[in-house]
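Please think about what follows:
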Amino acid sequence: MIIELSGKNSQSGKSSEKAIVDKLKEDDNFRVTLKYKGELFFKALKRNKLIKQCLIKRDKTPELKYDSVITSGVGLIVASRVAKSIFDEYEQSRKEHLELSILEGAYNSLELLMLFDWSRSNSFFKGKLVSEETDKLITIPYLIQTADVLRFQIQTFP
């Protein structure tokens, strides 16, 4: 998820990981900003009802994972990609006057992301991340497309 928040593709292998590690070593501002974004993301993620249930009812985690998207690696990648776009939009709108604490303002959008219905039965995910026929997760091909559509979806989310 941190790789996605940094703007790299976590699915592209070791090259992305190495690029992030190198940049973290070289760029203090990048390191501090990415850490803060990660903290905000995980703070919001813990408030997602499905994640919260997994944390509280650890013995029920396998059942909960089967019924949701966000508790899977694929779902977490999509959520972190959407979070990255939220941070990017927030930074762009305040480019001239960006301080780390200002990113806290993006938290409201992160909360909307986590309030989204991440269940596998949600029609939004059918044919994108969840197979129409089996309710099994479909992986790689639809990650970017789903993240892009979801970002638009939460902008119009009540």
